[in-house]
Amino acid sequence: MAVNKAGILKALFPMALFCLLGLPFSLRAQNGLLSPYSAFGAGTMQSYLNVRNMSMGGIAVGLSAPGDMNPFNPATYRTGVDTLSVRFDVGFNLGMNRLGQNLSGEKLHNQSTSGGLSNLEFYFPVCKWYKMAVYLMPVTEMNYRSSYFSDSIPHIGKTQLIHSGDGGVSKAGWGHAFGWGPVSVGVNLSYMFGKIEKDATLSYLDDSLAAYAGKARYYTETKLNGFSADLGITYAARVYKDHYLTFGGAYSFAATLYGKRTTMAAGVFSSVTDTAFLPDAESRGKVVLPSSVRAGISYERRGQYVVGVDFTYTWWKDFSDYGKVYDYFDNTFSINAGAELKNDPQAASKARRVAYRIGGFYQQQCVSYDGHRLQSFGLSVGVGIPVRKSRSLINIGVQYGKTGSLNLGQIREDYLRIGVSFSSVETWFVKPKYD
After folding, report:
1. d(CA 191, CA 195)
2. What is the dihedral of CA 336, 342, 343, 346, to 10 degrees?
3. Contacts with 278 (C-beta within 8 Å, 6 or more apart), sequence order
4. Highest-scoring range by mean pLDDT, 37-41, 65-69, 293-297
5. Is residue 188 scored above 90 in pLDDT?
6. What is the pairing mode between strands 332-341 and 355-369?
7. How far is residue 388's CA from residue 301's CA, in Å, rounded to a whole number?
8. Measuring CA to CA, which residue among 116, 121, 115 is closest to residue 172?
9. Mean pLDDT estimate for the chain
């Protein structure tokens, strides 16, 4: 008797939907990598989409072949998902970084590690020309800590000022894609949510001089939620037989997040703690995340290989926090390039049944230090290992990146990210056969 896969998937669909709706808070349950550059805005914008795209340097916009669907360009859902199959991708990542700084001739270093769920994506067909997607992914991530010691001050002594922050924003989305012939268009509707905590603590280190004060603390917690939307388009031109040249574009609208901010100030006086909520203890305001535009192009021989390049421009000058704008913010851009040698499930060689990926990226950040724009670059590699007797893949990817330069007096951050995902492809809407 044949296994009724369609019935199993139909039974699992409500569970998958429940996971997508119920797991958002677990996505941010972990602390991110400790990075001083996450202190700006609402945190570092996360370009980590899924293991496959990460392994190809982050290209995602100008793709149009089966299996190329991704939320960065909702138009890819239409060509990435066939009419009789559903696709599910769940990924996890482990990140490690090392911070370095030259301070007064002394070399300082710090290391941190973080890991957890990175993405959850579910794609399915409605009809031949209409496909849908449901997904969960991070948007920003904040985790920083800095410390400053002052020289001895008369009647106060030495002090230590510590700034720290933690949190971020995630989004759960619902995507739609339509298409006719070589043209596909798509739209994402997303709900964004998150929490950002910031803390500033001033400690008086000389108790004999600071007779009446030992520590002062200023803390804010901002809970955020709101909606966002993305538009996308692709045009896949057939060049020769199974050779295609694809052009893609996507636009993410600026997202207005509504915040509820709680502020607290506390002081420790001669071993007595006095906590005071300020008058604006539960102030409401808006945080505006910037809009961005993406363009991509790829050349692909279907079933054999693909190479592509993406360009992204983001208007960080438009970022605002409770009406406050930052004049030191500037607009940013990034360039991503990558390639994939696709796996051949029918190949006699086991090595050829594996997909091989490589890529790299360059990004100019939104802030400058001492007149020099902060820059990032990285390289990535990965493989897609087929699951026996199925079209599913186990994806493994490694990405190395660097932000900042010691030669320019900046803090240098080197990081290594390892991603693992399971990408399932199952046939649906097929009448079961019994034998």
Report:
1. 14
2. 170
3. 263, 264, 265
4. 293-297
5. yes
6. antiparallel
7. 25
8. 121
9. 84
Distances (CA, A) of 280 to 88, 177, 220: 45, 44, 11
Pull the structure tokens for residue 47.
């370009």
Distance, CA of 262 to CA of 272 (rounded, Å)? 23
pTM for the structure as a whole: 0.86
pLDDT of 127 > 80? The answer is yes
Which tokens in the block code for residue 249?
Answer: 């574009």
Q: How far is CA 90 from CA 51, 122, 395, in A?
A: 9, 9, 10
Distance CA 66, CA 237 (A): 15
| E-only strand ranges, 150-291 | 159-180, 183-204, 215-240, 243-252, 255-269, 272-289
Q: Please, which residues have CB within 8 angstroms of residue 351's CB and are 6 or more apart in sequence? A: none
Secondary structure of residue 360 in the 3-state scheme: strand
Question: 196 is written with which tokens?
Answer: 């950002």
- Alpha-carbon torsion (44, 46, 47, 51), positive or negative: positive
